[in-house]
């Protein structure tokens, strides 16, 4: 593994390249952890599908809650960290967080994963303290830089990080025994907070990246259009949907907000000329992720209001579909850009995009054609293959120094 030299008082040390930038450590760790977490979940499902059972598990919570928690507050939180630690310095013109912060925050994130996995043998209060520490640590890097520059519109992300922390806290409060029924609401708050971040960030980068790419090739048709009133309505609605999973909010209001958020999200997407980007996988995956986002809000809203569909299946169109595809899209694109490589993804990554979308669609709609275990195992296997391809292709990119042009 490549290393960098850093000196302190004349004594050089060697730091692995993967620890020199937030996107390197967190994007690689997120991919590896995603494979592990989904593999553990599918193994558990596979054993039960075969008629077996586990005498005990290392985690204290039910396996399905462990799965939900770790995909949101483990995997997704790592991608969010990699993005913010890299993007906020670019937004503010400040210095990027150094190796010391990457090592410290990465250690906190890893400690949380171990604490949750071995929670059956650790006091739940300690588990909570270790796992909940990550977002506050991450926020110190974000807040410090935003506070130094006039970044009013980006302060919303601090509020969303607080909401993410709140969702995680709601889960731990039930596991400790201090509340009776907050874990399910907590994971949903985490999912909808993450989708709100995707809606806001994606609303900025998807039309901008598409416009730049179309101009670069001399495209003669209409360019992406963003309407200020529609963008503001979309941001407001996705923020409200995240808050709607606080315990006191009635379900009918949640459903109405999700329905409105889905409609506005799809209206925003309609102006971004996604069809013109169809020949560029690194672009169309962004449009596909945003399509899954808007569709997920719509399907989930209709489900809450009518009860005609599985709430969990509808939720996975957002969780596995929108979050999964957008995080993979951003990791593959940002890693190339910051590593000094051309913004062209390889064929294995294109296959990973397709596999991931298929995994989300199977999980969300497969129950009508397949049995429960068949749906879960097929979807999980597709997800594992997608992220295994990502890790295989991007491991050397994220662990070797930037190419200087």
Automatic annotation (TrEMBL):
Classification via InterPro entries: NnrS
Transmembrane segment boundaries: 21-44, 64-88, 100-119, 125-143, 155-173, 185-207, 228-246, 252-270, 282-302, 314-336, 348-370, 376-397
Keyword Transport: no
Top-rank lineage group of the source organism: Bacteria
Keyword Signal: no
Record keywords, A-Z: Membrane, Plasmid, Transmembrane, Transmembrane helix
Name this polypeptide is given: NnrS family protein
Source organism per UniProt: Roseibium algicola
Lineage: Bacteria, Pseudomonadati, Pseudomonadota, Alphaproteobacteria, Hyphomicrobiales
